[in-house]
């Protein structure tokens, strides 16, 4: 019959054996379920219940097994969160590209079919175009806020939306900040904001030049 799971107390790995100094809260697998080399899968409690890390501890009794320390497990989770941040950047770029394509398509059709309207009302067209480009930016901010809220990086959606707005616009008041586990992700949103706002500005100027500096074309 398998031995019950045990709580492992260990903070450092020394010579392939546990040094029982500080409890990591690692729950060990039953002995019959351990891989060769004395490796045990452990779940290590992080700073809060929503930030649990998964690592591998090296126990006494193994011969030539390699180990994945809890530190490496934490680094893996950091990389995982940063990968999600990169995915969010890709999603916002896709949103911006979709709105750009749709908007420029309408503008081209207006140039072909309603050129007199554009010549007569360039200011109205400019205002409509700028407001239109704000819509995908707002969607990007909501997307990041939803991520913060669902990942429990912030306690409620209102705070998440506010934080996402000041970060995306790179205002950065600092009255609401993320915990240590998530603060690096916020820098990715700031970079995302630079990209999107630069892109939107270029699109605004392209249409303004087309409307107000046509020349004789």
- Distance between the amino and carboxyl termini: 88 Å
DSSP helical segment count:
5
What share of the residues lie within helices?
55-70%
Structural class label = mainly alpha
> What is the rounded Rg?
27 Å
Unreliable stretches: 1-69
Secondary-structure element pattern, one letter each: EEEEEEHHHHH
The side-by-side strand order for the widest beta sheet comes to 1-4
What's the count of strands?
6
Major sheet attributes: 2 strands, antiparallel
Name the shape in a single word.
elongated
Q: How confident is the prediction overall: mean pLDDT?
A: 73
Question: How large is the share of residues in beta strands?
Answer: 5-15%
Architecture overview:
The protein is mainly α and 217 residues long. The chain is 56% helix and 12% strand. The protein has helices spanning 70-113, 115-120, 122-150, 157-168, 183-212, and strands at residues 7-9, 12-14, 17-19, 23-27, 39-44, 53-58. The strands form three sheets. The chain has a two-stranded antiparallel sheet with strand order 1-4. It has a two-stranded antiparallel sheet with strand order 2-3. Strands 5-6 form a two-stranded antiparallel ribbon.
């Amino acid at each position: 019959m398998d031995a019950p799971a045990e709580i492992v107390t260990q903070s450092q790995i020394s010579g392939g054996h546990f040094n029982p100094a500080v409890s990591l809260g690692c729950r060990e697998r039953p002995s019959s379920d351990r891989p060769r080399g004395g490796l045990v899968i452990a779940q290590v409690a992080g700073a809060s219940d929503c930030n649990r890390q998964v690592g591998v501890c090296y126990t006494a009794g193994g011969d030539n097994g390699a180990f994945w320390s809890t530190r490496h497990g934490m680094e893996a989770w950091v990389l995982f969160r940063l990968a999600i941040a990169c995915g969010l950047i890709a999603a916002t770029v896709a949103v911006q590209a979709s709105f750009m394509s749709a908007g420029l398509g309408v503008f081209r059709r207006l140039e072909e079919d309603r050129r007199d309207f554009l010549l007569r009302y360039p200011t109205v067209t400019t205002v409509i175009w700028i407001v239109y480009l704000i819509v995908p930016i707002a969607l990007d901010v909501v997307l990041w806020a939803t991520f913060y809220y669902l990942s429990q990086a912030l306690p409620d959606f209102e705070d998440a939306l506010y934080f996402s707005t000041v970060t995306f616009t790179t205002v950065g008041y600092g009255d609401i900040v993320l915990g240590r586990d998530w603060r690096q992700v916020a820098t990715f949103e700031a970079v995302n904001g630079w990209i999107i706002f630069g892109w939107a500005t270029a699109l605004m100027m392209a249409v303004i030049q087309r409307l107000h500096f046509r020349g004789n074309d």
